[in-house]
Amino acid sequence: MDLAGSTYNQLLDYVDTFLPDLDNNNDKEDRPVSNTDDSSVPKKVEEPVDYDSILKMLQTPLYNQTMDDLQREEKIKANFKLYDRILAQPIIEPQVDGLVRPGTPLAGKANATILSLVQNKDINAIISTIKQLEDTFNSKFGYPYTFMNDEEFSDNFKQRISEILPKERLIHFVKINPNDWNRPGNIDVTKYNEAMDKLEAEDVQYSKKLSYHNMCRFYSSKFYHQDVLSNYKYAWRIEPNVNFYCKIDYDVFQFMEQYDKVYGFTLNLYDSPQSVRTLWETTFEFIKENPHYLNKNGAFEWIKENIQKPRNFNITNGYSTCHFWTNFEINNLDFLRSEPYERYMEHLESKGGFYYERWGDAPVRSLALALFADKSRIHWFRDIAYHHFPYTNCPKSPFDSNRCNGNCVAGKFSPYPNLNVENCMPTWLEYSMTEDQLKLYEIN
Question: Transmembrane ranges (predicted)?
Fold first, then answer.
């Protein structure tokens, strides 16, 4: 039974005829990036990319919309079966060469910081997060922390943070420039208020919280421009009241560097479609004008999936609403500073959707990654046990391992079974990861 949309698959096959063999690029998981001079090796000539065909793919649902309910359920079950199989595997860490261990020369030497946007009132909650991250990872590597706030940090906040970290640890406390935080002057306040009344009536969370809109815009297009981050390449975002359950005995930033990753995530789920009603149309308008920014190996299927939550796809006129949950993310800031991402942000800013709707930094970042980055450079840290209510990424440990503290249930996405439908990870596994990537954590 052919459950995938035949039109989509025909387009995919057609595009493949224009693309070089990508297999040699998809095994980056198996080796670090080499600086060896290979000028004597004949270069493979790149075939031209047929951007028109990619644009057609991005206008086509992943699955045939004539599928009946039984076919739809069978395909969803098949995707979740793959997810369950992967999550049932005992793992410890990526099974690759060159992981940087604590106490070795490169440990803690990546150009990286741990980043948090917090307010003074969050002090107890962010201390809880920091203590767990120090216990599981950073006490062994000593990366600096960067705290950002739209107001001045209090002396009490600074003192309490300093007290829980080693004296030699570098800590940045930054007040955000009001121009980067506040609602822009070109936003029509009356239009904004009317739009938020409508979103509130549709039960869109935080729709009337101006600071939330500001935060989404800031984390989408402004945070990486702050002076304090200008000399950093990587930033690991953390938030108050999250949990880390397992020890991490390798330098994750060095892993990102050595294996040429632009993004690291743990959770991947659907968004409220009402909050991003026009985001996909606005995005497609941009890529139609700038098709050369598209990556031929983008995660197109993931954003065009249309059967698990078809209402989301319909409300947004063509976007699954799948997104990486950015309360945990490890960004390669060079990607955010790149021309495609910056031009995309300028386009989104010009439309006002951070305020006339409730465009979140998570769907914005995720669409940019899916469209402009090679999907093989987006890494699922399945070994990092992470919880942000109500969702968890919890790996299964070998029976003789003491790596995890036992406070999460392996493979359990949420304590609420009705929320399992919100999990986009099965689609990511099916369409955006190679077999080698799926086997990356398998213990030999």
Answer: none
DSSP letters spanning 197-219: HHHHHTT-TTTT-HHHHHHHHHH
Residue 387's DSSP bridge partners are: 243, 392
The total number of structural domains that make up the chain = 1
| Cβ count near 162 (within 10 Å) | 13
CA dihedral 381, 384, 388, 394 (to 10 degrees): 100
- CB-count exposure of residue 313 (10 Å: 0-12, 13-18, 19+): buried
Give residue 194's domain range.
112-268+322-370+379-409
Q: Which amino acid is at 62?
A: L
CB within 8 Å of 100: residues ≥ 6 apart: 106, 107, 250, 251, 254, 255, 258
Task: Tell me whether residue 23 is in a domain.
Answer: no
**Which tens digits make up the pLDDT trace of 19-53?**
434 333 444 344 454 444 555 556 666 778 899 99
Rounded-to-10 torsion of CA 60, 65, 70, 74:
0
Which residue bears the tokens 């919100």?
422
pTM of the model: 0.90
Residue 238 lies in a domain: yes
Per the annotation, the verdict on 289 as an active-site residue is: no
Residue 351: CATH number of its domain: 3.90.550.10
The verdict on residue 70 lying in a domain is: no
| Cα within 13 Å of Cα(280), Cβ side | 25
Catalytic residue among 301, 329, 357, 430: 329
Phi-psi region of 174 (alpha: psi -120 to 50; beta: other; left: phi over 0): beta
Q: Is there a contact between 325 and 422 (Cβ–Cβ < 8 Å)?
A: no
225-249 per-residue burial string, b: 16 or more CB within 10 A, e: under 16: bbebbeebbbbbbbbbebbbbbbbe
Can you tell me the distance from the alpha carbon of 444 to that of 442, in angstroms, rounded to the nearest whole number? 6
| Residue 444 within a domain | no
